[in-house]
Each structure stands twice: as C-alpha cells, then as structure tokens.
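In practice, a research group might receive sequence data for several interacting partners and want a quick structural hypothesis before committing to experiments. The following worked case mirrors that situation: the sequences arrive first, and a predicted assembly follows.
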Amino acid sequence: MDYEMIMLRFGEFTIKGRNRMRFEKRLKDQVLRVLKPYPAALITQSFGRIYIELNGEPYHPIAQRLQDIFGIVSLSPVKRTVPDLEAIREAALDVMKGYDDTPRTFKASVRRVWKEFPHGSQEMNHLVGGHVLRRYPQLRVDVRHPEIELRVEIQQEAAYVFSEVVPTAGGFPYGTNGKAMLLLSGGIDSPVAGWHAMRKGLEVEAVHFYSFPFTSEQARDKVIELARRLSYYSGGTLRLHLVPFTDIQTSFVSSKQDPLMITLMRRAMLRITEKLAEQAGASAIVTGESLGQVASQTLASMNVIGRVVELPLLRPLVMMDKQEIINTAEKIGTFATSILPFEDCCTLFVPKSPSTNPNLRVVEKVESFIPQLDELLAKAIEETEVMELNAETDLSGETAGRDEWF
Amino acid sequence: MLYFDHSASTPPHEDVIRTMAEVMAQHYANPASIHRSGSEASKLMKRARELMGELFQVGSEEWVFTSGGTESNNLAIKGAAFAYRSRGNHLITTQIEHASVYEAFRQLEQLGYRVTYLPVDSHGLVSVDDLKAAICDETILVSIMHVNNEVGSVQPLAEIGDVLKQYPRTLFHVDGVQSIGKLPIRLKEWHIDLFSGSAHKLRGPKGNGWLYVREGITLDPLFAGGGQEGGLRSGTPNLPGIVASVKAARLAMAEQTVRRERMGRLRSLLIQSISNIPELKIINGGLDAHRDDNIAPHIVHVCYPGMKPEVIVHLLEKHGIIVSTKSACSSKEDRPSRVLLAMGTGHEAAKSGIRISLGDEHTENDIRLLSQRLAMVVKKLKPLEGRG
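A structural hypothesis for the assembly, expressed as tokens:
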C-alpha cells in the first residue's frame, strides 16, 4: 500500500522544559539527514511530532531507517485524503487492508479538528467504524482495549488516517547529553554498551587497543566494522581511536605479575582513554563491563581498575545478564561481527588464574616498578591512529574496494 | 552471425570479462586463509554477498554461491528433501521443469519420496487449484520454475506463494534461471524460501550460480568438505567468477524494466512476421509480453511438424542465424520435448521445436532478417517434409 506520510512521535525529552528546543532541533537534523537520499520527502514539525510528507518517496526504507534514530519513540504510516466522508471511509478500508484475516478487536477514533466538517467526532466513529466492520466481518468492536485502533484526524486541508504504531529506538537525540569515550573491544558487550550510551543522547568516540602481531589485522578490521555499525546509530560519523598496545602489554609481561595482568592492562587502557577524552572534550568513559562476568569485572576488580581515572565511568551493562546483552547485540546488528573468531588484546597473555580481588596498593606498587610506563603510555597516545567512520565507509580495503569490479 | 540462443547461454558482458580477469590475476589467495591476501579475497566475497542481498532485497547471508543453475537446483531440492524428511515424504513439482529440477525429483523418487508432477495447460501454465489439490500434510517441498526455458511461460508465483504461505511446513523453491534480469523478482513478497539463479544466462561467466536460502532454513549439503558457504557448499570458492557473476546480475537487474519492454516489443515483431509462414506453429504466439503477465519477453518457440528441428538449425546457421532445438541441455537427444508434450501439442510438434531467444544486442532489423531467413529455410525444406 502507498502511504502519503509518516508521523514521528518524540521521546522522553518532550517533558524537559529548557532543553526541548535544542533536542527538537537536533532530532529534526537527524531526520533530515535520513531523508537526504529522498529529495521529494518534506518535513513539518508540530508539538511533540514530526510529519514527513513522502511525496512519492518509498515508505519502507525510510521507516526502517527512522526506527534506529534515537529520540523517536514511535512512528505511524499515514494515509492522507480529502476531508470528505466517502474519501475517509475509503482510506480507512485501505489502511485496514494491511491486516490479515485473523479475528481481532477493533475501534475507530476520529478527531474532528476542523469544526466545519459536517459530522462530529462521535458520529464519525460510527460512520467510519461501521463501514470498516461491514467490509471486515472478522473484526469485533472493543472500545477499551482494541488490538487495532484506527485513527482519523480531520483537518481543514486534509484528513489523516492511520492505525499502525511502530515502536522505535526511543531515548534522546544523538549528542544532546554530552560526549563520552567508549572502550571498544572486539567482543559482544562493548558495542552494546556504546549503543546504550548513544541512545541516552551521548556523543561517542570509540577507543580500541590492539597488539599487532599478537592480534591479527582481521581483529582490527572487526573493530572497525563494529565502530562503523555504531556510526549508523549516530546518524553521521563516529570517530575511532586505534591505540597500539603491544609495548605496554609486553612491559607488563616482564613484571612477572601474571595474576594482575588484566588489572594492569585495564588500568593502562583507562589512563590512555582519559588522556584521549581530554583531547576530545569528552567528560565520561563508557565501558562494556557487566558485574561478575569475568575476573576483571568483579566488584573488587572494578574498584581497583576504576580508581586510576577521575572521569566518571559509565557501565550501561553492569546489571544486565549475558543473554540480555546478546539479544541487544543481535537487535543492533553487532553480534555477528562480534563473534568472528579473531582475538583481541584482552584475550592475549591472559593468566591461568587472574586475580578476582586485586589489592590497590599492590597494583600501584607493581606499576611503579615498570620502567618508563608513563613514557610508554605517552608513546601509545602519540601513535594512536584516528579514523572517521560512517555507515557508508567502505571497509573492503584498498584493492578489495574496487567497486567497479561489481 | 546473428546469435539467437540467449536462453542457452549469453555472450558475457565486457565489464564482466574484465572483472573476472582482474580479480583472477590479483586475488588468487584462498578467502579462508588468515593472511592479508586471504582476508582481502574474503572481503570481496563479503561485498559480493552484500550486493546480492541488496539486489534482491534480502539478507546478504541468505545467498549461497554455487557452480550454476544445476547445482543450485540440486542443492535446493535434494538438500531440502533430505533435511526435512522427518516432516513428510511428499514433494510437488511440475511436468515442465528444467532437467536439473526434474531429474533431481526422479532421483528422489528412487529414494522413496512420493512426487506429484503438476500438469500444465496449453500455454504451459500450472493451475493454482491443481497445486491446492495436490498439497497435503506430508508435503515438504514445492518446486516451481519462474520462466520456462523452452516456451517462456511465466508461472503465477505470487498466487502460488499466497497459497503456500498457509503451509509454513512446506518449503517453496523457484528455479529462476530464466527470469533474473527479465522479470521483476519479489522473493519476500512471494514467500519464496529457495531461489536458484545462473550467471551465464545473463551475460555472466559460466560455472557460477546463486541459491537464495531463506534465513531459518537448513539444507543438507551435497558436498562434504571444509564447510564453506555456511556449510552448504564446501570447496574453495571461485572468487573471480563470483565477483563477475554479481556484476552481471547487477547489470542485468538494473536494466530489467527497459529490457522487458524492449524484448517484449521484439518478440511481438518476430511473432507477427513469422505468423504468415503456414508450416510453422508458434507456441504461445497468442500471448503478448506487454499485455500478459504469463509470458516472458525473450523466448519464442516454433514447431515445424514433420521436420527434424536439427535440419532447420543447421540450415539457418548456414545462413548466419543461430537458434536452438528445445532446451540446449537436452537438445542432442532425439526425443520429443517433455514440455511440449505436457502442453498437449501432440507428438509431432513436440519433436520439432525450435527455440529463438533474444538478447540485448538485437534490433528490429535483426528480427526482420531472422524472419526472412526462416521463411526462406522453410520454403527450401518444404519438399522434404515428413522425410527428416
């Protein structure tokens, strides 16, 4: 069926007073960016809503893309017709065509905004609802909890008819709540943490640590792919910092403190990330830690690791079960990439029995004995490579990117 | 030489040849290897799969690269029959399928499956009512071709899909070898579970095909080995062919609408100009690719009852025109066409079919030339009727 319009409903930020204008503007920009490949589509804004006039542009791909834009709670495909009883009835049948023959409960809700329209809202409920029921006898009226609510809004210039309400990503428009650095490994959790952070309106820059030649090029590519997927949710670009970590890791190996290996590594990562955050003007660090999941994610470990930085550490997954995290990873399209079998640096040099209860003072002591740790950290920051990714970034490599071959 | 045998195979597109040569020279590494070259090869595979997903508006992981239409059909049919045997023992196909489908079902019959071969009407079309009557609780697979390779009939896939939608335990396979690039294809809308295609029918390389396997469906693989293609098709992938085949598919599908229109016009012109040769019987000549949804734009089938079709093919070739006898794959056998017999043309006509299939390069002039030569050849052979 062809729809003429899409109606977008805003999320939780509608209740906030002062920031509303800023949020709405940001959201509008995001929607406009989605519509860029569809030049005929136009948008209009009204209280708590954005309307997209499709003008012949296709509904499905646009709706699909909008479902992942943060700040929109739901959308509805809308049929527009002239404000005339017969035309409205016709449009109502059209909308109902989208449902199969399963018996369902049903209700028509008409709002007559244009008071010159000859039939009142109540009367219209019957006139439209009755018409639909005659055509679709399997429907049963239930005005309290209908499975299908057919809504009609009658304005002077047009009548709008819709029923489907598609739930969308929700949250705050991207970047309206500040900026944070995201520790991005190649695993399942960190991209999900990133998505949660972005959904809450945080602009995110990702930081990845790699240990070539102990980790492969593919492991690096995998992270780039994950970051690219996250960039899709930003609606624009996402910056990825690739930090060389081999020298730091090797220096930890030589300290012969195997059980503390992970604690030391994680602390080093946070210190580097805090420096990068300073440069980027970010005021938090997001991690994919989930309480108790591995040795470094016990409460004691988190405490010792987290103390090395002053920025707030945000851990969106801290109270989630692994299965919940996996479900989200699948939903946001990072799972398949995350489970590709390439090691990242955290799975390297992993001791047989990592400490689950490290002692802060011991850890600090060990660090103080590592020759030139600060220099190594500074060098890693200096050699960090930065990539700007967006959903269209071609990751197929220099030769493989020869799209003219296709 | 004018080549009118595009349903047998097509001249590869020059860009396809270039892609094939360049990828062959530069990406010889095995995509499964972990070194850089291997991973570049594997990225090309990934890109190829993504494009297939985009072209058909399905998931990229839903495509399996195969060696061609025959393998795709065999993998789909036997793979599904073996994997879902516990669901039931009944299979449905039609009497007019390509040999790679038909013979696969014959093999399955040998293995104890029950197969219903749906009949067709005089246009070569199955009836949805026949399908409804044949289907039962035991039916695990229905395989119906999109465009018939001999007579160009187009099966009502949308309607069939609507029927099969009500049987979620019955898989729907479509042999789309003759339709890609010629007709619109709506895998999701038509509720298709398995869909076969072949690159060399649309100006791609030989030895490359595709099989769409809807997410959630498992097939028993035909080859045991290294588990490539998600375990469905072991063997080192033919990367140059795969990239080139996707290029060919992209080119073919980008121009599908225009091609259908253009070829449909040429087909009408051809039918109109040979309809006055009384010796020739045009199969599906009454169907118009512009007006009717049930005929493909690129195939014209004519019979000269009483004349061996090889004689016409040879004589036409001498006059610079290349056509074929029934389908190329089985045309060396001296047997009546199973497809024409199923359509009720009678034995004589079924033994004398000639297929003319159109390509992108053909012009109205070529069509006129073809019909003149055909008329001439028929006139020359007329005295020998019944002797061939």
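Before designing any experiment, note the following. DSSP finds 13 helices and 15 strands in chain A. The mean pLDDT of chain A is 90.
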